[in-house]
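W.,

You were right to be curious about this one. When I first looked at the sequence I had no strong expectations either way, so I just let the prediction run and decided to look at it fresh. Below is the sequence, 403 residues in total, followed by the output.
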Amino acid sequence: MSSQNEWYFQCISCGWEKPISLPDPTGFFCERCGDLLQLVLRESPPDKDELFPSNVAMSVWKYSKALPVEKRVSLGEGGTPLLKSRNLGEVLGIKELYIKYDGLNPTGSFKDRGMTVAIARAIDSHAKILVCASTGNTSASLAAYAASGGLKSAVLVPEGKVAKGKLVQAVAYGAKIIKVNGSFDTALEMVEELVSKDKNFYLMNSINPFRVEGQKTTAYEIYEQLGGVPDYVVLPVGNAGNISAIWKGFKELKEWGIAEKVPHMIGVQAEGAAPIAEAVQKGYERPRIWSEPETKASAIRIGNPVSWKKAMNAIKESEGSALTVSDSEILESRRKLAAVEGIFAEAASASPIAALSKMGSKDGVIVCIATGNGLKDQELIEWDTEQIAIADNAETLRRIMMK
């Protein structure tokens, strides 16, 4: 880990800075203009050998030289596979297509990368109750890491809008579940107000820049697994923390002299919940609020993404783009990803696959991020009755198998 006195909070708008000495800024907002904060390493960035020690297994904490906290609670997050497509790439006319399967993190989503870092900061802060708003994956991850760290957790979820496979995880890990009559955005507003008034609660949403630091390790792993930087990184966008985190990781690699280039970042949203894609495509300075976002891909059903500015900066700086896909395209791509590649991903994770046909250029190396495991939202799987048959003897079995 880099020395803490080398790390600073920095406002993404006005440039206000503060060393990361405790206490943290209230709600992780700039004390001058109120915008979001990021973390910057001011001195002694790691060189390639320090960042990628050859004798350490791949995980989030392998890259501790680029993280602002010491490891406290780990469930084995990171080190997820980068799988080269054997079949989809050929169908889509893409020679170098890879899937980064972050659904194989401990609680089944990329959220674990950020949670392990953020909970270390929470422990340093003597937090009593960890709290978040969630469409599902964050609640599962927070509850698991809080349980492992011996801390209490509370998660706010929009009623009727969270997949059962995600909610049951939070219940199993012992979190207090609070259903909110409204959207994710309503839940997040409540959490932000709570932490601004009561210091017993510690915010664990991706507003918390320590979450971003953990999630940026996806970029480090892709670089290490590929032996270089891909041309495109395509990923789902909901509250928009992950696209900015992965961009931050690649930017650091270039700024620190480790990589020679950065990828184009392609953010993908569902047509019914696409505030960032709409803003990028129409040239808005900021997204308009979608008051009633709707998509079957519950992980990205967010109409007022709090990290919109970070995401739009990532897309602009990387000369990337933002695309939209329909729910039918998402579900069909999810089916293909499982049936053709053997990768079972949650619905939101299939949105990058659905978007590939809409990309202007498909030359070069393309990495799609599958952010969550398919077991998270099994209710979206439509069973083909011909897939399930009944056999009562060997001859019946033979006939069924020969069809």
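Here's what jumped out at me. Residues 158 and 306 are 16 Å apart (CA to CA). And, maybe more interesting for your project: The longest strand covers residues 152-158.

Coffee later to discuss?

I.
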